Amino acid sequence: MKKRILFIGTGGTIASELSDEGLLPGLGASSLLGSVPDIAGACEVESVQLYDLDSTNIGPEQWLGMAERIRDNYAYFDGFVISHGTDTMAYTAAALSYLVQGSPKPVVLTGAQKPIGFETTDSKQNLRDAFAVACDGGIHGVCIVFNGRVILGTRARKTHSKSFDAFSSINYPNIADVRDGRLMRYIEPECFARPRFYTRLDTRVALLKLIPGTGPELLRYMLEGSRALIIESFGVGGLPERGGMHELVKAAALSGKAVVMTTQVQNEGSDLAVYGTGSALARSPGVLEAWDMTTEAAVAKLMWLLPQVKVPGDIPRLFYTPVSKDILSMPG
Ligand code: ASP
Fold it and tell me: In 3D, which of 246, 248, 210, 211 has the Cα closest to residue 226?
């Protein structure tokens, strides 16, 4: 029997056309499908146009909208394909991994670096591959399918701004590859008998990327303006010792804010205890560390966990409980 797939359009380059203001999304999900007619022969597809947005304009409100659309239609389809702009697709994939947990049915995000109407485009291949993954039956939960890679939703990052090979899986292997329409599955994603849906996000999450010279004023401002602050530090992690920055972080963590130390180095993650610039923070109660987690996943996980916090101990408990293999290398 043919698989039933819900195809959700949200905009992005794949659905864009040239205008005087540059590329603007405008093509609906059914026109995208119309450009790749062989997909409709392989599965039964229903299309819905949820948004017409460049993904620069997609955020928590739309993540909740996508999760709600999946939840409302979950019983009626075997899988879901979402076409989405590439710029923030990794954040959306991470957010959906927390909002729709343990899904036995696949939720596949894809998009393109070149619009579907262009002579040279990756749109059609990415759509074919995304539907092949959605119909396969061996891929569960949220993933990105792009340029032949199948990347777990919690592990994706946009690593090329122009080439077709736009996404990488960070600190985790691709879960599968698609070659000539055939799937090579390497890892079976975990799933539950039934998905768990979440409907709330707290957007008071901020990210401070350190540069040499970042001082306590900016750190204080960002801590005061957020409920959770991720600090992207250098190397395996640490914080400049001038101006009482360590004390600011320790005090914020003790007061019940979520403070997460991570690294701006893309691969291999943090290990805060290694250097004198980080070891005291690593031992400090309430200061969290992202280890091998991507910043995209840390942002989405904090937005998801904050509404569930009743006592301060809930923050580390929820942050360090792995969801869809988002964090693996923490000790203990
Ligand atoms: N700016 C576009 C977007 O993210 C880029 C793309 O889709 O490739 O919507």
Answer: 248
